[in-house]
Amino acid sequence: ANNERPAPPVFRGSDEIRDLAHAVTAMRRRLEERARLEDNVSLLTHEMKSPLAAIRGAGEILHDEISDPSLTRFTDNVIHESQRLCDLLDRLLAMARLEKLESLPARKRRVNIATLVEEWRRSRYGLLADKHLHVSVNDGTLQAEEETLTLALFNLLDNALRFANAETTLTVHVEGNALTVENIGPAIPDYALDRVTERFYSLPAPGHDKSSGLGLAMVNEIASLHGGSLALANTDNGVRSTLTIPQQEH
After folding, report:
1. Cβ proximity of 155 and 216 under 8 Å
2. Which of helix, strand or coil describes residue 101?
3. How confident is the model at residue 104 (pLDDT cuts 50, 70, 90)?
4. CA 177 to centroid of chain Cα atoms
5. What's the pTM value of the predicted model, to 2 decimals?
6. CA distance 145 to 142
7. Cβ–Cβ contacts within 10 Å for residue 38, how many?
8. Which phi and psi (to 5°) does residue 82 adopt?
9. Are 86 and 79 within 8 A, CB to CB?
């Protein structure tokens, strides 16, 4: 507790007590190693954001100054890849914050899902327009911690957008304690259904870069923090994601 390195307790007597002491000491050391790793990852992630922003800024300046199409291709790549890395770092930091939470703050309230979907739609307007996608949502609310629910819904919608076929509709539906996001597109292979919520596991999407594999992992973590669950299933023509959050009784 005082940041000291205590020596393992020494017992003369029962083997069970001695075994327990060794087990507790081993557990403490493993927890310390995990905490150090998490702190180092968070520190490294923060430290990488500044140079990445500088690289992207330099790429944008060069892009404006260069007229040769063959060189412009390289500056476009610098800008694009540096933005991908920034997005990955943001997701790593968000995942680290979630994993450090033992429980959610006691400020759950009724959250209007249609309002959140509209906020997401405005922020992804260009991507939706590129694929000529529509978004459909019914009126409904969920009682949840708003910030983490927003993060979960945005990640579910981003995933649905990524794999949706062009000129189709993303459907968001709230009923009872369940929130579903459904798209029309390729099915999830059977071998991947149980793995898509693992960290860094991702499937290729036509026309897109490889994803970070953190989006659905974050949604799964948020569901767990709410005492709920996340389930993905193939439909006749796409994929349905269902986030279930137990509702408090009044």
Report:
1. yes
2. coil
3. low
4. 21
5. 0.67
6. 9
7. 13
8. -65, -35
9. no
Average pLDDT over the chain, rounded to whole?
81
Whether residue 42 is predicted with pLDDT greater than 80 in this model: the reply is: no
Q: How many CB atoms are closer than 10 A to CB 190?
A: 8
Q: Where are the domains of the chain?
A: 15-100, 109-244
pLDDT in tens, 150-186: 889 998 999 999 999 999 999 999 998 999 999 999 9
Burial status of residue 220 (CB atoms within 10 A of its CB: 0-12, 13-18, 19 or more): buried
Residue 120 corresponds to which tokens in the numbers above? 């997401």
Query: Which helix (DSSP H) or strand (DSSP E) does residue 241 occupy?
Result: strand 238-244
- DSSP, collapsed to helix, strand or coil, labels residue 10 as coil
Q: In which residue are the tokens 């597109």 written?
A: 185
Q: Which residue has the tokens 């993303």?
A: 170
In this structure, whether the domain defined by 109-244 belongs to CATH 3.30.565.10 is answered with yes
Residues 166 and 185: their CA atoms lie apart, in Å, by 9
Six-digit token string for 168: 């189709």
Give the residue with greater pLDDT, 108 vs 135. 135
What is the reported pLDDT for 163?
92
* CATH number for the domain formed by residue range(s) 15-100: 1.10.287
- Residue that the structure tokens 């003369």 belong to: 12
